[in-house]
């Protein structure tokens, strides 16, 4: 997996993981306002009239100017990010599974009016999800091992990328909510 560059708004809110090519474009358009961390990537260009080859040093964290989607404050709910939030553990039986053996379970089932929202979904193994069916955990006699929560933007950025550099992790971790042990 290639290194990813963390893009921030000019005020420091994380908005995306970028490829080196996208980051280079931001540098070339002079949209990078500030950066953090030691040089992650050095990209080489052509040779100028002076006979020197040009290069571009890209930092692992870049804050940029420009417009950003208004819904960036609402992390998108996907199974892969949900499973990472719950550490690939069924929140009913406590067993850790491979992603193929996991499902998204609605705490308040959809058949009872439950919504597909961070605070109403948990990771469940297939067996527990089938056993619970269209019941709430209380109705099924299956208490939850943890309370579902919506990750903040910094936690979401961590969950959305499996290969995070130390300086990127340090930037994100300082802004975690403290609801989980994020070392896993």
From TrEMBL:
Keyword Hydrolase part of the UniProt annotation: yes
SMART domains with a match to the protein in the record: HNHc
Molecular function (Gene Ontology), one example: endonuclease activity
Domain HNH nuclease: 77-130
InterPro entries: HNH_5 (IPR029471), HNH_nuc (IPR003615), NA-targeting_endonuclease (IPR052892)
Key words of the record: Endonuclease, Hydrolase, Nuclease
Gene3D superfamilies: 1.10.30.50
Protein name as it appears in the record: HNH endonuclease
Species of origin: Salinispirillum sp. LH 10-3-1
